Amino acid sequence: MLKTMPDPSRLQPSAETPPDDATAVNALRSGVMRLSRRLKHQRVDESLSPTEMSVLGTLAQCGSATPGELARKEHVQPPSMTRIVALLEAKGLVRLEPHPEDRRQKVVSQTERAEAMLEESRRKRNAWLAELVGQLSDEEWDALRAAAPVLEKLAHL
Amino acid sequence: MLKTMPDPSRLQPSAETPPDDATAVNALRSGVMRLSRRLKHQRVDESLSPTEMSVLGTLAQCGSATPGELARKEHVQPPSMTRIVALLEAKGLVRLEPHPEDRRQKVVSQTERAEAMLEESRRKRNAWLAELVGQLSDEEWDALRAAAPVLEKLAHL
DNA sequence: TATTGTTATACTCTATAACTATA
DNA sequence: TATAGTTATAGAGTATAACAATA
Question: Residue A121: pLDDT band by 50, 70, 90 thresholds?
């Protein structure tokens, strides 16, 4: 179960690649895509897209960020982030202020309303996920919980 | 690390819910959404969308299926699957045949060309993922590999 | 001249509603 | 009357290209 050799070439597409890795890659891609499709529909606030939610989550961690930083973190192009930030501002969930040092940039930060909304939606999400996860074994949920931060790290690399 | 109590209420949104679960849920959602966005761009065959790839993967497992079955498995509405199947057929990757018992239905199966393409893309995907996963520790990759089948199961529930 | 952000535009994917054919 | 699949249409989300303002 546990690896002993930190071999960086373990995933090289060589002939020796064990089928386990290829299978895991397939399952990972397919599972992520299908789950993302379901998550899109399970949005807590009907008026908030998954990326908008993700931006709010990022702001909750970072405190504040420029549109460019947000675009890079969410793996979205700058014009898309412009639109997302504008929508969030229209909903009163983020605040835009001028950058103190660079007048080209702006600083985006979350409002109190966003904070309250995140708290609210955390409860709802748990309820929804509990329905699904309730059908998993404890081992399966453990595997998922262990992998969650790795998924995030992977998305950032 | 290991659980001993198979308590089905462990994820209920009660006051006693440990913060670990909520954090894991957040990380899971955010990670899945961001990774899915990157996967969309890392498509091996530039002309194949993630869902088209997923359908081919499903057909490789099942052998064949009706459009309705595929729509349910991919969590997509029937009209969307109609379009996807039509695109795959135009690319010579699936074959459509009349259902032997019900003249309303059709039977979709993959062609040899699809099989070869899946083999090809498995190599390319591994190469891409190797770049990312190479930056993970062995423990992190183990966590991911263990979670991959669970993600798939979750998407099916 | 390079960089940050925006505007204008188009594309991809998916959904809903209405329709056809078969059970 | 119910079900499988299709057609027509609309909407959401994102991308690229061209532009403005600032560094």
Answer: confident
